[in-house]
């Protein structure tokens, strides 16, 4: 019995030792990226081990992008953060020095491995005839959109609508008035894009959901393709979802090598195809061309060129007391 007990202890200690050597990465992400990372994570794990890496556990946390960034600042130990706009990653530098100021220069394309467009999801048959941004201001139209204060999805909607006015000859005052009217058409402002999808699809609230084009495909997979239509407005701010290693966390945990490899692999051909299969626009032009049938041409507004650097955009429009607070009155 003693020998059996000793052998059991040895086996347990060996198992524990093996387990302790397996690194765990936590990816803190925004809520409409669940499906992409469900596909990407096992592909990366297979690649990592084929390259000689030790078994790697990848954990995910999803939510409204700004809420997620706040959680990391407050202590959620993210090895990597994968957001839908630079503002939420900049916050990790501005509040806690968790990353360097030049984090975006560490990977190609300003650390954004793919892009996306803003689209309208409307009820089957498009009964309200919603084809472009001005249609959303029609009397009686209910617009479902997440809160720009907590969601990058909501901020891209705001910037797309603002950019539409400028593109069509309006000035800043006209754009401010237009955006204010648009958000007053919203019966509720959810904290994130996936919550807004639930409001529109499951709770059947609203006439139009404004979201990213990749979320439109996820809606089709979950709810079926017969109950809604996708409308591409004439103008969309180009969404460039960036990624970053959280330096203070990986240096404390000893996971920098794994975290850097995890993000770098997003630019691989395999990952770019996974992105395209999840209706995210690949950066690789050849792979984008392979999937041209699912990505209509869009009149993209480059955000920084149109509105200025992200820190200034955040300060002007979305910080407390900014333009959004000035134009939005809760219904």
Architecture overview:
Belongs to the prokaryotic sulfate-binding protein family. It is found in: Periplasm. InterPro entries: Thiosulph/SO4-bd. Keywords: Periplasm, Signal, Transport. This is Sulfate ABC transporter substrate-binding protein. The structure is a single chain. This protein is of the alpha/beta class and 331 residues long. The chain has two domains: 169 residues, Periplasmic binding protein-like II (D-Maltodextrin-Binding Protein, domain 2, 3-Layer(aba) Sandwich), CATH 3.40.190.10; 150 residues, Periplasmic binding protein-like II (D-Maltodextrin-Binding Protein, domain 2). It is 48% helix and 14% strand. It contains 16 helices and twelve strands. The strands form four sheets. Strands 2-1-3-10 form a four-stranded mixed sheet. The protein has a four-stranded mixed sheet with strand order 6-7-5-8. A two-stranded antiparallel ribbon has the order 4-11. Helix 2 packs antiparallel against helix 12. The longest helix has 20 residues. It is globular, with a radius of gyration of 22 Å. The relative contact order is 0.17.
Summarize the structure.
The protein is of the alpha/beta class and 331 residues long. It contains 16 helices and twelve strands.
């Amino acid at each position: 019995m003693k020998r059996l007990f000793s052998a059991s202890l040895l086996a347990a200690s060996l198992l524990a030792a093996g387990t302790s050597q397996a690194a765990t990465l936590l990816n803190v992400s925004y809520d409409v990226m669940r499906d992409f990372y469900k596909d990407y994570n096992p592909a990366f794990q297979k690649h990592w081990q084929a390259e000689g890496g030790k078994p790697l556990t990848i954990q995910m946390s999803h939510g409204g992008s700004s809420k997620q960034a706040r959680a990391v600042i407050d202590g959620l130990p993210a090895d990597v953060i994968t957001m839908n706009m630079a503002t939420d990653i900049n916050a990790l530098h501005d509040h806690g020095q968790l990353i360097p100021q030049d984090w975006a220069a560490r990977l190609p394309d300003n650390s954004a491995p793919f892009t996306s467009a803003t689209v309208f999801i409307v009820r089957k048959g498009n009964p309200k005839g919603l084809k472009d941004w001005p249609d959303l201001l029609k009397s009686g139209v209910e617009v479902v959109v997440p809160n720009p204060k907590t969601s990058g999805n909501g901020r891209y909607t705001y910037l797309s609508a603002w950019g539409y006015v400028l593109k069509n000859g309006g000035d800043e005052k006209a754009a401010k008035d237009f955006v204010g009217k648009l958000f007053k058409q919203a019966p509720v402002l959810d904290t994130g894009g996936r919550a807004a999808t639930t409001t529109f699809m499951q709770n059947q609230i609203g006439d139009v959901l404004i979201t990213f084009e990749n979320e439109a495909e996820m809606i089709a997979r979950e709810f079926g393709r017969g109950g809604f239509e996708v409308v591409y407005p004439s103008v969309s701010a180009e969404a460039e979802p960036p990624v970053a290693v959280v330096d203070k966390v990986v240096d404390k945990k000893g996971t920098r090598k794994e975290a850097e490899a995890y993000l770098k692999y997003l630019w691989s051909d395999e990952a770019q195809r996974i992105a395209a299969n999840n209706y995210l626009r690949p950066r690789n032009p050849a792979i984008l061309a392979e999937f041209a049938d699912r990505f209509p041409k869009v009149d993209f507004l480059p955000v920084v060129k149109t509105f200025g650097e992200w820190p200034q955009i955040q300060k002007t429009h979305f910080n407390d007391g900014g333009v959004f607070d000035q134009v939005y009155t809760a219904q």
